[in-house]
């Protein structure tokens, strides 16, 4: 027997209503993004650093890259470090654009493509969430912290402000969470989102160039191996898979304007609970 509050028709209709994209609410998005990033940072930094394992994994990964013939990080690092203005610029790029561009793309999609916003945001959240598994199960030292490989810690050498990876701020962040690279995961999310949604050819080109430039930067500053970038790409693929499974289409395939105009069921339930309190 079905209870008074759970009619079969209501149950069948609930899932499509939950999946239907709605116009995002700015207060909810700010709260959600803030809490989510705080939680992500808390969990990431709470993962045991496991220094010995992280260094051993870095040696193993470096040997694997040499076997594959792609271990050019050392040469790139030293070549860029010899050009002061270039390496300092890359240091600031690494420390700032990771956040600035990602937030900028979120705001752009929120403002001009509200029907695609929730699905696009879900890709980013799922990508970031699954990365925590890599930090926990595969602690990895970045090249700049390896023993006996003579990588240059460009932030430390050039006294660049702003990086959580070196200098006085390094104790605020887990230094052995290099795999996967969320600099690549997030920048590729930005680039693909811009390429898929933007109408101006120059914007689409810049969208594709952004993750390429980020890849060069993370290697040149000795913060990541090439294979860390591959890990970030796999996480992003997972994020797109989760979003497509929930919404039934990739974000850019959804309508630009949301079709559902009523309040989201979860939001409505929360508001009703507060009203009844």
Kindly list the characteristics that best describe this protein.
disordered N terminus, 277 residues, 0% strand, mainly alpha, Membrane protein, 68% helix
Structural account:
- The chain is an all-alpha fold and 277 residues long.
- It has one domain.
- Helix content is 68%, strand content 0%.
- The chain starts with 7 loop residues before the first helix and ends with a helix.
- It is found in: Membrane.
Quick one: biggest sheet?
none
Find the count of extended strands (DSSP E, 2+ residues). 0
Give the proportion of residues in helices: 55-70%
> Distance N terminus to C terminus?
30 Å
Mean pLDDT across every amino acid position: 85
Strand composition percent: under 5%
Low-confidence stretches: 1-6
The number of helical runs is 11
Pfam family, one: PAP2_3
Membrane topology: Multi-pass membrane protein
Organism: Streptomyces roseus
Main location: membrane
